[in-house]
Amino acid sequence: MAKRGEGPTISIKNRKAEFEYFLLTKYTAGIVLTGTEIKSIRAGKANITDSYCAFIGDELFVHNMHIAEYTHGTHNNHEAKRSRKLLLQRKELKKLLVKLKERGMTIIPTLLYINEEGYAKLDIALARGKKMYDKREAIKEKDNRRAREREE
Question: Within its chain, how far is the Cα of 70 from the centroid?
């Protein structure tokens, strides 16, 4: 088995997040995973595009995150879209719970990666949804930035 810190770095980004939401506060959370799930993530077979986070009791879970079944797994393989518990400090969870009660606020995953120690981490953000005119404005800014880069 390879030593920790070796090999390619795996990072799976939610590209839709910045377009659909205003990202206000970012946190890094650990994830409770099974063995076949971490192997699939290391193979790059995960998708966080349509996922979201929600509280169940006092615990934060990520829902609708797709981690493909491990190809070499046996009958003990995991479900692809099960809810997974996120690991945050208690005071961070309390802050998020208070902020989440405000109207229009949600928690979305922005980045899934493997850190230097070999653990899977999920960057989450407290976010507020954008209106249609905000999205159009973001597209115009992006086009203007591209045009300026081409001119240089």
Answer: 20
Interval 112-134: pLDDT, tens: 999 888 889 999 999 988 787 77
3-state class (DSSP) for residue 83: coil
Contacts of 23 (CB under 8 A, 6+ apart): 17, 110, 125, 126, 127
Q: What is the pLDDT of residue 103?
A: 85
**Residue 21 token pair:** 């939401």
**Domains of the chain (ranges, CATH numbers):** 11-151 (2.40.280.10)
Query: Each residue of 83-104: pLDDT tens digit?
Result: 899 999 999 999 999 998 888 8
Would strands 66-67 and 84-87 be described as parallel, antiparallel, or unpaired? Answer: unpaired
